[in-house]
Amino acid sequence: MDLEIAPSLSVTLVIPTYNAGPLFKLVIQSIQNLSYPLDKVLVIDSSSSDGTEDLAASSGFQLITIPKSNFDHGGTRNFALSCVESDIVIFMTQDAILQGRDVLNKLLEPLATEPQVAAVYGRQLPHNNATALSSFARLENYPDDSYRTELSSEFPKGIRKASMSNSFAAYRCSALRKIGGFPEKLILGEDVYVAGKLLLANFHLAYTGDACVQHSHNYSLKEEFKRYFDIGVFHNKQQWLLETFGAPEKAGIEFAIGQTSFLIKRKQSYLIPYSILSLTLKYLGYRLGRVWKALPYWLCVRFSMHRDYWVKKSIHQDRKE
């Protein structure tokens, strides 16, 4: 039986896309199978060349095409928010497959029952082809147990309190607009930024462990280094997050210990050397990202997973600040 929630919540689902590939068909099928009535599904496509736009339009979704060069993690989502008239906006990524007909009912329950909850994110399960390390990352960062939190709550501790992933997250539009929406010109982390700002504005956040999507990435060692370099850049430019919630090093140590234990339990101890190398490259990338202003510009471009970010004129100004 489908979970019933307050029918008064109007909901728009937003998906930014770019060359989404064959997996997007499964994402669309999971949306079309939902029991919760959506106001609309809005796809913001960055000029795909693989038929993503045609697939979205033929599925009955509202399609808006933007130049690839105009895509911005926060700015594009802000643009989408300006097109939303619903009470709630749900953001997904193009590779997140909804699990079950009533998954949105479960995700929206905290928003329907607790006025102070401004945002809720769901659990991410590994894709069927996920590697051992990719699987652990999802199981560690997205556990079974649900929770509610506010700035004064003891759990989660540290930077984890501002954890949020808009690969599958619902936001109260009024609260989003109250804090100014998503930040523009960030290399990544717009979801964590918003989570922190919502907490500082005395809103509550929620995590719902039984509202699930399949979503994971099998990053190579090089990609892990680049991704954590970008996280380091994000933390360098958003010092208030670390000052408010704490540095991530302790969480990183706990993650490393947990990953080793996970491999031993799965009888995959032979992967521990690779795991150690992966963790080392993550840490090295992160530390270099934290001091990006001291690095040559060309090296920042080479180290980053988001090269387009570095062509923005604002970066040169940031280096002078």
What labels describe this entry?
alpha/beta; 321 residues
Plain-language structure description:
The chain is α/β, with parallel strands linked by helices and 321 residues long. Helices cover 44% and strands 16% of the residues. It has 13 helices and 9 strands. Strands 1, 2, 3, 4, 5, 6, 7, 8 and 9 form a 9-stranded mixed beta sheet that branches. α5 (132-141) packs across α10 (249-265), α8 packs parallel to α11 (272-290) and α10 runs antiparallel to α11. The radius of gyration is 19 Å and the shape is globular. The mean pLDDT is 92.
How are the elements arranged and paired?
Layout: E1 11-17, H1 23-32, E2 40-45, H2 52-58, E3 62-65, H3 73-82, E4 88-92, E5 97-98, H4 103-113, E6 117-125, H5 132-141, E7 147-149, E8 168-172, H6 173-178, H7 190-200, E9 204-214, H8 221-237, H9 239-245, H10 249-265, H11 272-290, H12 297-303, H13 313-320
Parallel strand pairs: 1-2, 1-4, 2-3, 6-9
Antiparallel strand pairs: 4-8, 5-9, 6-8, 7-9
